Amino acid sequence: MQEQEQLSPVHITNNDGRINGFVQLKNTSSLELFADFEYTISSPHSDSKPEVLYRLNETRPIKLNEIYYLDHPKFGVVAKITVP
């Protein structure tokens, strides 16, 4: 990647749509991973309680071929960036 370059975001979701978000790589002064995810839990009694939404929004400097864990009290993201 060239200096100050950012790649297009990659959309990620699971089959039932409860996890939805994207990751993006940015090359500023260092390589950065930007992650933005939402985890939605439906209430068993949807007419009495609304859905609960948890959000993980994090930017972290990274190095290639290392494993990173982005943590939230209700869910997490494991990421490893490699170059083919």
Shape: elongated
Terminus-to-terminus distance: 13 Å
Number of helices: 0
Number of strands: 7
Share of helix, binned: under 10%
Strand content: over 45%
Q: Structural class of the helices, strands and pairings?
A: mainly beta
Please state the average pLDDT score: 87
Q: Give the SSE order as H and E letters.
A: EEEEEEE
- Unreliable stretches covering 5 or more consecutive residues: none
**How many individual domains?**
1
Q: How would you characterize the largest beta sheet?
A: 5 strands, antiparallel
Structure description:
The chain has 84 residues and is mainly β. The chain has one domain. Helix content is 0%, strand content 55%. It is built from no helices and 7 strands. The protein starts with a strand and ends with a strand. The mean pLDDT is 87.
Task: Quickly describe the structure.
The protein has 84 residues and is an all-beta fold. It contains no helices and 7 strands.
Please outline the helices and strands:
Elements: E1 5-6, E2 10-13, E3 19-27, E4 31-41, E5 52-61, E6 67-71, E7 76-80
Antiparallel strand pairs: 1-3, 2-3, 3-4, 4-5, 6-7
